[in-house]
Amino acid sequence: MTTYKIGVIGGSGLYKMDALKDIEEVRVDTPFGSPSDAFITGKLAGVPVVFLARHGRNHHLLPTDIPFRANIHALKQLGVEYLISASAIGSLQEAIKPLDMVIPDQFIDRTRNRVATFFGEGIVAHIGFGDPVCTQLADILADSVDSLNLPEVHLHRGGTYVCMEGPAFSTKAESHLYRSWGASVVGMTNLPEAKLAREAEIAYATLALVTDYDCWHPSHDSVTVEMIIENLHRNAANAQQVIQEVVKRLNENPPESEAHSALKYAILTPLDQAPEATKTKLQALLHKYL
């Protein structure tokens, strides 16, 4: 099986770029069920890359129903070491405008109905998550955006992403609460994705693509579905350019991320005393510690 060190999770349109060559579909079975869809693999400037439509190519999965564990585990099986999460989000700040890009460095988890760990069943691990984004990968993302001089796009480095359960959007009271916390953007998908990527020792960073202001904004009621869809398409086109640049830079100078050894001191259970069935289930994550 080909190894893909670079993975991208996002909308189904991200991989539809002319520069992607040798395109194939790959289906992966995991101990945690089936991923959201088949993976789309190919090469950008000769570099192997794997893409996954987070909600499925027909957008049939609610945020709560995304098989996060299967998605991340499958990427680990494919050899992914660097994962870019392209995510549509709403802005919580006046200065963060539709079509802007944000590279958050913090998350607030407001989800309620999602499993956020691979562990359990006889093996306990507590990853460090104080800095939930890989700094090196985030810097490469930001530098890539800056280098492209994309029209109408302003980049915001850093910020806090509030991940809510959905599928309904925020109430105005919730939106104002998130603003009072100093949060930057709100979305529905990046947790537990980021936590699971850290447990899988995959460097993770978010490219947050602003489609609209959240409902706190005085002009929110003038935002139409058509406007949001148009912004989604424009954001996808911009994100394609960013991904190509990131892939080039990662290939030329892949950083060593702290995420790549996240489990080194996180596993509390003596693995020689752990259940064999659980060790087998987590083989892809634990193999270098067994």
Could you characterize the architecture of this molecule?
- With 290 residues, the chain is of the alpha/beta class.
- The protein has a single domain (6-289), classed as Rossmann fold (3-Layer(aba) Sandwich), CATH 3.40.50.
- The chain has 7 helices and 11 strands.
- It has helices at 68-77, 135-148, 172-180, 190-199, 225-252, 276-281, 283-286, and strands spanning 6-10, 20-26, 39-44, 47-53, 82-91, 101-103, 106-110, 155-157, 160-164, 185-187, 203-213.
- Strands 1, 2, 3, 4, 5, 6, 7, 8, 9, 10 and 11 form an 11-stranded mixed sheet that branches.
- The longest helix has 28 residues, at 225-252.
Layout: helices, strands, pairs:
Elements lengths: L5 E5 L9 E7 L12 E6 L2 E7 L14 H10 L4 E10 L9 E3 L2 E5 L24 H14 L6 E3 L2 E5 L7 H9 L4 E3 L2 H10 L3 E11 L11 H28 L23 H6 L1 H4 L4
Parallel strand pairs: 1-4, 1-5, 5-11, 6-8, 7-9, 9-10
Antiparallel strand pairs: 2-3, 3-4, 5-10, 6-11
Helix pairs in contact: 1-4, 2-5
Could you give the order of the helices and strands? EEEEHEEEHEEHEHEHHH
Summed over residues and divided by their number, the pLDDT gives a mean of: 94
Count of discrete domains: 1
Largest sheet, described in full?
11 strands, mixed
> What is the CATH topology classification name?
Rossmann fold
- Please state the oligomeric state of the protein chains shown: single chain
Summing up helix and strand content along with how strands pair, one would put the structural category as: alpha/beta
The CATH first-level class comes to Alpha Beta
**How many β-strands, per DSSP?**
11
Shape: globular
CATH homology superfamily:
Nucleoside phosphorylase domain
Assess the beta-strand content as a share of residues: 15-25%
What is the CA-atom radius of gyration, in angstroms? 19 Å
CATH architectural name:
3-Layer(aba) Sandwich
| Helicity level | 25-40%
Low-confidence parts: none
